[in-house]
Amino acid sequence: MTTPFRLKLLLTLSLMYCAVHNPVHAGEPEDVIARVGAETITFRELDVTINSSAMIGMTIPGPGTPERTIMRLTLLDKAITADILYLDALDKGVDKNPVVLDDIERFSNAILGSMYKEKYLVGDLPVSDEEIRDFFKKNYEAGAPFTQDVHMAIESILRKQKFKHKLATLRERLRQGVEVEVFGDRLDMSADAERKSSEVVAMAGGVPVTWGQVRQQMTLAGQDNSPAARRERLETFIDSRLMAEKARAAGLDREKSYLRRLKEFTKSKLVNIHRAVLAEEMSPTDDEIREFYKNNRDSIVVDEHRKIQMLMVKTREEAEEIKQKIESGELTFYQAASEYSIDPNAKMNLGELGWVPKGSGFPELDKVTFDLEVGAIGGPVETPAGWHLVTVLDQRDGQFENIEDRETWKKTRRLLVHDIEKRYVTDLRKTTFTVEVYEDVFSRLTQKEVDALKANQAAKAGAGGG
User: Fold this and answer.
1) What pTM does this model have?
2) Residue ranges per domain, the chain?
3) Cβ distance 317 to 391 under 8 Å?
């Protein structure tokens, strides 16, 4: 039987993209839920993105909930858009841009250098029982108990000492057999503006290091620009490049973890640059911005909001009597809402309804509410539900109500550019890049999560009942 939620899911997928069954491709993960050209999107990728949202303060819907599925669908749409722009960027040769190539090479060297340092220059740092016992004898009082906690603490200390020693000799070991020459006279900050990108500032293993390759590290704002500090940053760059070269020679550039991270960085870089170029090319005219605001004003304007507290009774007389008691100080609004309001939620929320936008309630009540000063009591006001008293606890002014306002203009332009990009991507999807969404896989994995949640809840209920 098809549930209402499943019907909603199927409808959402059909509106977004053509849902088809997933063809099995050898070597691919089993949770591929979409394909854009040769690019794949997996169920796990969406969950990784969702779970990382906690790091930026977003609320994460729980596994097996409809809200989590809706968030997955939103992220799936964004991932498909990103893949379309990535493929379009490749078609347009954005990956040949020298700036892009430099950034990708810099990222690649950093990752490979880190992998090489960890695996070959630092590596595992074993600590023997003999070393631990010897440290214990030299540094602990006679008769002190040698517990497991003490053993672990000493092991940690010795490992840190070994790591520190290895780092101290890292450059020496890395550069064995490699001739390195740094031209310190070419690092003077006063000549940065005139220095050409092609100027050689160092030689490492017979390969030149140019100013263009290290300019970014050398000219970051707020850092120490003394000759010694600049030289050390250049030396660090050389170390990183040497480690990357050794990593490639050792085959670390064929490891899956490296290839995955490089692909993620490259895709993100190309998409961001391509988006910026498209935004420039699609730059709307002033008349187009004003027309867009006129046609979409309701979705751009943020209405005035009031944080309100309200109580409701059956008669005007009762409302007048309660209002008089509140204004005289005989009752607080909280007490009145709890004791007299016929709203079934009043006992729990004490009449607090939170933030409400202008125009969202009964017209007669809305008018009184949004004419009140903060702290004043309005009413009695009659609605089909009863007689109301209302007070305003706080207020937020309306925003983006005038297109000539600078912030309104910026927001409208940003939304228009996004809308133009969306239409551009939709056209690419229809004419250039094949997009397939595998609803069968998405539904199966979603249902699996729902079933696991129900089983866990049942197990907890059973344990509690026992």
Assistant:
1) 0.69
2) 4-88+438-455, 286-299+401-431, 303-396
3) no
